[in-house]
Design a protein that fits this description.
By secondary structure, this protein is α/β, with parallel strands linked by helices. Helix content is 29%, strand content 23%. The protein has helices spanning 28-36, 38-42, 44-56, 106-117, 141-149; strands spanning 8-11, 14-20, 64-70, 73-78, 95-99, 121-125, 153-156. It has a seven-stranded mixed beta sheet, covered by helices on one side. The longest helix is centred in the first third of the chain and has 13 residues, at 44-56. The radius of gyration is 17 Å and the shape is globular. The two termini are 26 Å apart.
Length: 165
């Protein structure tokens, strides 16, 4: 099924609104970190293949942002760590699943996202090394402590663990 920003999907008890998202803007810091990692040499052929595929199938920095509603709860899911400046996203969801990778300083990059969306809870994903050499393990502990100190329950999600919203 193809979804487009503006769509509303109903799947069982879930109602899902689709919004235009924005891919994170890679910066010099993440480019430098990527080029200096040992895994870049190890996975050089994979890096070159991904680069060729990106040229053949450009994603135009676009991604989707979803708001999922069920049982009186609202969950937001970002496809990447960026927002389209022309979109009026809903705020104050019960939880936001937030990708935490793609720039040299993810905590600084997500600060305006958190300020705009005002989530009650943040669940971090995509902070792991899922796509070497383009990804790496990102430390989340400082950001988690800072957000929890501001009263926003925040944690890095773990594979296989269930989460109550």
């Amino acid at each position: 099924m193809r979804v487009t920003p503006g769509d509303t999907l109903c799947i069982g008890p879930f109602e899902i609104d689709v919004y235009q998202g924005r891919h994170c803007r890679f910066d010099f810091g993440v480019a430098r970190q990527t080029l200096l990692r040992k895994s870049t040499v190890t996975y050089l052929s994979k890096l070159m293949r991904l680069w060729r595929l990106n040229k053949a199938y450009p994603e135009n920095q676009e991604t989707a942002f979803y708001e999922i509603r069920a049982e009186g709860k609202r969950l937001q899911l970002m496809g990447s760590m960026g927002m389209d400046e022309t979109v009026d996203y809903p705020a104050a969801a019960d939880a936001l699943i937030l990708p935490f990778q793609g720039t040299g300083d993810p905590a600084k990059t997500v600060a305006p996202i958190v300020a705009a969306l005002k989530p009650k809870r943040i669940l971090l994903d995509h902070y792991d090394d899922a796509f070497p050499p383009l990804s790496s393990q990102v430390r989340t502990d400082d950001f988690v402590v800072r957000m929890n100190g501001k009263g926003i329950l925040t944690e890095a999600m773990e594979s296989g663990k269930g989460y109550e919203i």
